[in-house]
Design goal:
By secondary structure, this protein is α+β, with helices and mostly antiparallel strands. It contains four helices and four strands. Strands 2-3-1-4 form a four-stranded antiparallel sheet, covered by helices on one side. Bound molecules: nickel (II) ion. The site of nickel (II) ion has 4 residues, from strand 2.
Amino acid sequence: MAVIRFGVSVESNLLERFDEVWKERGFVNRSEAFRNLIRSFIAERELEERGEVVGSLVILYSYGTSGVDYRLNEVEHAYWQKIISSMHVHLDEHNCMEVIAIRGEGGEIRKIADALIGCKGVKQGKLVMTPLRME
Ligand code: NI
């Protein structure tokens, strides 16, 4: 298989941090680390196209700022049939973590997760999807 070289434009501080992380994680070089990222990116997409899956979404936000609680609640109620459980953790005086379990088609779960992560005031969000039928 032909190997293709291509250029990527990226901010210098982002690339510096990327180089630190792939070295810490034991990749042999930047290309190998980048290939790993590409494979994960594609695998995630393929999972989304696979039918029914379960997703766990972790979001971090600051309690009480800019009405983020209200907006999250609105989205969660809009998708009440897909969101099967959620857990709220008060991390400290101001910060909250929510772990939300979602069941449905992969693309649909991605859409719900993006709606929650995209709520103004959400600082971080990460979705992990797992197929329901294990092979
Ligand atoms: Ni809280």
